Protein 1
Amino acid sequence: MQDLTEAVGSGWVLQEGKQVLELRPRGRDKGDALMAFMEAEPFSGRQPLAMGDDVTDEPMFMAANRLDGLSVRVGEDCRQSCARYRVASPSDVRAWIERASA
């Protein structure tokens, strides 16, 4: 990934997460992506639901919070998070989706 990061140039940065390496535009993050989605149809005027399990998701949680949406950290780790809610596991997320869609 380091070689790829160097090959694509200085406009990109390698970010480490939990069992992941992400190549993202320098100065941009998942929070910026969420804000862009929420400005476009059909998301405009709605509240976001942001769920994630990694430090790379924290900017997305902050953006969801700024938009008065829901931010949910998935996992039982003790790591500090700005997500407003927590669920223990991905299976809890799947169960919630199943209940919500019934």
Note: The chain has a mean pLDDT of 94.
Protein 2
Amino acid sequence: MQVISVTQSEKKVDTNLLVFTQLSQLLTYVTGFGGFIVPLILWLVKKDEIAGMDVHGKYIVNFQITMILIAILSIPGILLFGLGILSLIWVGIVSFVMPIVNAVKASKGENPSYFSTIRFIS
């Protein structure tokens, strides 16, 4: 007698949740810090259930941590050289544009791409 073990490890495909996760980063402009917390919670809760959530979540967390670090390091740059203002403007623009671009990619089923991001979680 032969026993066959079949594991059901298929994940659901939910591009709407991936799009929402990407766009939830924009909560930073409303709440100040929600753009990091909400995607982090969605990623931690749904990474084993939704196809692509693990990849999107890691990219989002790495991107948000990188933007926070650049913003923090820009503050002394304002006081010392005045160039910190340029990097804060850059962080503001990139933090607004990249989630929208990657939400469109998520709706098409593509992986996200964030440039100039330090990979803390791989």
Note: The two ends are 43 Å apart (CA to CA).
Protein 3
Amino acid sequence: MMTRRGMVAGAAVTALSYTRILGANDRIGLGVIGLGERGTAVMGLFQKNGDVEVRALCDVYGLRLDQAREKSAPNAKTFGDHR
């Protein structure tokens, strides 16, 4: 038979374990379209937050795309067309 104290202790342990799991809203995936001065500046501001990960980069100018990927987001997917 479960006592009230045992139930409360079990619920507390379960609640604590859920706080250690990263959920869908604990990490922000960022996609940047347009990697000129403004786009890279805004991307840099977002990257100051440790919960932001740059996942996608898009620019029609290939050189900017490569520079941004090398500098800030080596694991990001790259696209030459925003569609």
Note: The chain has a mean pLDDT of 79.
